[in-house]
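Weekly structure sync, notes
Attendees: PL (lead), two postdocs, one rotation student
Agenda item 3: pending single-chain targets
PL asked that the sequence for the first pending target be pasted directly into the notes so everyone works from the same version. It is reproduced below exactly as submitted, 128 residues in total.
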Amino acid sequence: QVQLVESGGGVVQPGESLRLSCAASGFTLGYHAIGWFRQAPGKERERVSCISSNDGRKYYADSVKGRFTISRDNAKNTVYLQMNSLKPEDTAVYYCATDRRYYYADCSVLNINDLDAWGQGTLVTVSS
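Predicted structure, written out during the meeting:
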């Protein structure tokens, strides 16, 4: 059974940090580009970060550049999102997702409207 499971969300104050994890089962996560996405209340889902599977390149949305870091541990079949200097506007449900149709691909293959595997999401709340 193919599954992505996010964890690590929670309630933090502005300026604090969280590390999200995305654990894959049923397939080898290292073969595929993996993205982190988020959806805030009343807003569309957006891509936050992505890591390619061919050359390890990393992509970050401008809003999180310099504060978030994506990484993968292929031995653990897990991708992480380290989030530092969190802001209230980072409050959202965070999802990891991939498209298993593409092997050894860069992040350009991840079409937010056509991904074949999503996690259930983990809620991040940044509030004072």
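Discussion points:
- The chain has a mean pLDDT of 96.
- The first strand starts at residue 3 and ends at 7.
Action: rotation student to compare against the earlier draft before next sync.
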